[in-house]
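Problem 12. The chain below contains 505 residues. Write out its predicted structure in token notation.
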Amino acid sequence: MADFVGAVDQGTTSSRFMIFDHDGNEVAKHQLEHTQYLPRPGWVEHDPVEIWERTNVAIQNAIRSAGISASDLAAIGITNQRETTVVWDPRTGQPYGNAIVWQDTRTDRIASALERDGHGDLIRRRAGLPPATYFSGGKIKWMLENVDGLREAAEQGNAVFGTTDSWVLWNLTGGPNGGIHATDVTNASRTMLMDLETLDWDDELLEIFGIPRAMLPTIHPSSHPEAFGVTRTTRPTRTEVPIAGVLGDQQAATVGQVCFAVGEAKNTYGTGNFLLLNTGTEAVRSEHGLITTVAYKFGDAPAVYALEGSIAVTGAAVQWLRDQMHVITDAAESERLAKTVEGSDGIYFVPAFSGLFAPYWRSDARGAIVGLSRFHTNGHLARATLESICYQSRDVVDAMEQDSGVHLDVLKVDGGVTANDLCMQTQADVLGVPVSRPVVAETTALGAAYAAGLAVGFWRDTDELREHWHESRRWEPQWSQERREAGHAGWQKAVERTLNWVEVD
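Solution.
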């Protein structure tokens, strides 16, 4: 048997390929950023061709860096930024314009109209999601209504949709020459178009959105030895490697954090934050602003569901300080600058750049910095930025406890922001529970590798995967309960100031 498993991690800001050994250790990786296009306020786009090209190069370079050949890979898994919408011509592989990114808010009128026209309850009941700009269904509808000739092409079978997992998979398996047009249940559950019970596209939802069923990829389990085909391009592997696992990035992180038992939760800190709680084979409906989603489905076993709190802007707020405000020169400087002060001293920064996601779901909100006086410095702003990440997660944890009745004993964390020790200590302080980071912090790619490896027998079962999880660092809460609650009360006042800022029809 081959000695390694590979994972494509196609994220919001970059694409990378990682290679893992049987113990779940990282052997090699290569990562390349792609361009963020911001053509109008609220619009966020990516170039799908650039994404594929950089994914392709990342695979080649990681294999070369590991000193192995593609034949040494038992399988490849794919994980991806969810909801980001790509539509392309399957005859040529040419996209019908840029991808519309999950952060994009141009579909706010579509989302509002769905609610106004009485479709909101049906979408929540069938798909587990509220009508929101976040999800793919509205983005497809917008493209069909605004890209010249696209609807006619779609009705003729000359335009197909996919989230970026489907786009990468189609290209890896041959593209115009027999590429496989498929996705998995986790990504499909992010469209507002899939029935959570049947795990198939829902005809009534498709009719509401006006989307031809022929545009959509075939839905498969997250882990399957044959469903996703094999690599067939002359690049990047020059050999046939099974693509045996596909998971949306946050579900992949849930698998990478081995949250296989009911009540286990993880929080991923990336461009946004995403907290998932395993609810088992029951789809728990939220009454407190969370969404119901598929956590994973391994082969013929029943699907496992999760409650999710999705936060649009967390790590992206640090990027904003760097790229737009030029307060810092790199992400690591945010911690150094924040440490120049003892606290934020009354400043709150609510980074509602794309409105507010869970648990508020307010597309009319916009970012605000409140509580400023002449006393405050850029250090206070940096501190408030880190605290905003933690307070938004606190809002989600509170909602999750109300929905599930589960009180977290510890929060497992992963993602790039977890390298910021001050932020993680603040998270423990704001929540009042320990925060635990694993040895392999990049659990998104690891989860995709686990899904692919399980499918081909590289790993025996989930119990074996649990043996590979080890804690790297734990932060214990240090704030008093009085300080914790006073800080959160101030945060909630700040959130109120961001609401009703833009008009949404």
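Discussion. The chain is about 35% helix and 20% strand. Students who got a different answer should revisit the alignment rule from Section 12.3.
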